[in-house]
Amino acid sequence: MTKAEFIALRKSEFPKTLKLLRFYPEEKKDLKPSPIIRTAALDRLSEEDFQKQSDGFGTKMPLSAVLLSLLLDHIHHRGQFTIYSRLAGAKVPQIYGPSADEPWQPPK
User: Which of 48, 58, 61, 96 has the most CB atoms around it within 10 Å of its CB?
Assistant: First the structure.
């Protein structure tokens, strides 16, 4: 996977998560990100640096593989959050296809 492909995939995934978070009930919005989280500044990273070997969970692998693993983990936890949202009484938006609460809408 190239850096450009990764950034395109990442940019297509985060709006889906933000939409899910917007559906969460207002009265139950006490979830806040940690104040120590920083941005990764991927746009400024060269393709060469994106492919460099890195420490990936205790083993050497390309940074691209580390970041893809993190993105897939994000997607997994977004799926878990849909369950919490439903239990909290929130509607669940479509993510990859229609949901019980939102009919199919073509990607923008």
Answer: 61
> Exposed e or buried b for every residue in 87-100, given b needs 16+ CB within 10 A?
eeebebbbbeeebe
Q: How confident is the model at residue 68 (pLDDT cuts 50, 70, 90)?
A: very high
Distance CA 48, CA 106 (A): 35
Rounded Cα gap, residues 91 and 86, in angstroms: 6
Task: Of 7, 28, 4, give the one whose Cα is nearest residue 71.
Answer: 7
Going by C-alpha positions, the residue among 33, 44, 7, 31 that lies closest to residue 84 is 31
**Over 70: is that where the pLDDT of 30 sits?**
no
pTM: 0.64
User: How distant, in Å, are the alpha carbons of 12, 16, 100 from that of 85?
Assistant: 21, 14, 13
Find the largest Cα–Cα distance for the chain. Answer: 46
Could you tell me if 47 and 82 are in contact, meaning their C-beta atoms sit under 8 angstroms apart?
no
Name the token pair of 96: 């990859």
